[in-house]
Design goal:
Elements (H helix, E strand, L loop, with lengths): L3 H15 L19 E7 L13 E2 L10 E3 L4 E4 L2 E12 L16 E6 L1 E3 L9 E9 L5 E9 L9 E8 L6 E8 L8 E8 H7 L8 E7 L3 E6 L2 E7 L16 E9 L13 E13 L2
Parallel strand pairs: 3-6
Antiparallel strand pairs: 1-17, 2-7, 4-5, 5-6, 5-17, 7-16, 8-13, 8-17, 9-10, 9-16, 10-11, 11-12, 13-14, 14-15
Length: 292
């Protein structure tokens, strides 16, 4: 009995030295971890209240792409309790750009029925190569299409290059996460895709609470390849020798900027019967590059 306190103290010391396990259901308030052989060059922890840092982020506005349902607006993104929270909402107001008889899906809708937000670091923060880590929790409700992605700073899409560290939507009606890389082809606006998908069912077969947790999406990008992971599981490897545009340029040998957005509808499915708000929570964005 006299030795029991000594054993307890010793065990507590070991636990303290190892550090507490990160709670998968809450934002991680700990300092960015060290990565061997790499230096942290950028960190957005969202540890503040209110609007996202304007020195890092701008916002897309209005109807943007893919005939999605949401109207992008800045007020749907706010920082709270250590997270960026992007909300998809049911709203109804006149489309400010409505044009009767218009052939464009952006202007022939008389009303806005859904809103969300898209943050973009273009012209503010961009990077060439490195390890990118984004910890986030996604909403898997019908209609949700959250994404963590990058675009190159030069050339129009897809010759600028696109990396989707995360997309969640419903290919052929099947809820899935996707890891994609796109480069240009000899047809304007048609991308060459290297795409891998993993069904939500397969993720939940291993962890039935997968949708309730934060996960770490990662890109390791160098002059030879792009590797995409979720929770340290390799999803997709793309060789840069396979991403050369028709003009001989390579979209992944230039700086890329980051986008964090929540789309609704289109590939995400019909959100009309889903519970709102639909949320996309981003705990942090961290970028490491080679160096001590």
């Amino acid at each position: 009995m006299k030795f029991l306190p000594v054993l307890i103290i010793s065990f507590s010391s070991i636990v303290s030295a190892m550090g507490a396990t990160t709670n998968p259901y809450t934002p991680d308030a700990s300092q960015p971890k060290k990565v061997a052989g790499m230096k942290l060059i950028f960190s957005e922890e969202f540890n503040y209240e209110g609007v996202p840092n304007p020195e890092i982020w701008s916002f897309e506005n209005g109807f943007k792409r893919n005939e999605e349902l949401q109207w992008y607006q800045s007020k749907n993104a706010n920082c709270k309790n250590g997270c960026l929270i992007i909300e998809g909402k049911k709203e109804n107001f006149p489309n400010p750009n409505y044009i009767p008889e218009s052939k464009s899906w952006k202007t022939n809708r008389p009303n806005v029925n859904y809103t969300a937000a898209s943050l973009i670091s273009m012209n503010k923060k961009s990077w060439l190569f490195g390890r990118f880590e984004v910890r986030a929790r996604i909403d898997t409700a019908m209609g949700a299409w959250p994404a963590i992605w990058t675009l190159g700073i030069d050339k129009e899409w897809p010759s600028c290059g696109e990396v989707d560290m995360l997309e969640f939507y419903r290919p052929d009606g099947v809820p899935s996460i996707l890891a994609n890389v796109a480069s240009g082809t000899n047809v304007r606006y048609k991308g060459k895709w290297d795409s891998v998908k993993k069904t939500l069912a397969s993720l939940m077969a291993k962890d039935k609470k997968w949708p309730e947790k934060f996960h770490i999406w990662r890109m390791d990008w160098n002059e030879d390849s792009i590797n995409l992971y979720v929770d340290n599981e390799l999803l997709n490897t793309t060789l840069l020798s396979e991403t050369i545009n028709v003009d001989g340029s390579n979209p992944f040998l230039q700086q890329h900027y980051l986008l964090l957005n929540l789309a609704l509808g289109a590939n995400g499915g019909d959100p009309s019967q889903s519970h709102f708000p639909i949320t996309f929570e981003v705990d942090y964005v961290r970028v490491y590059q080679s160096g001590k």
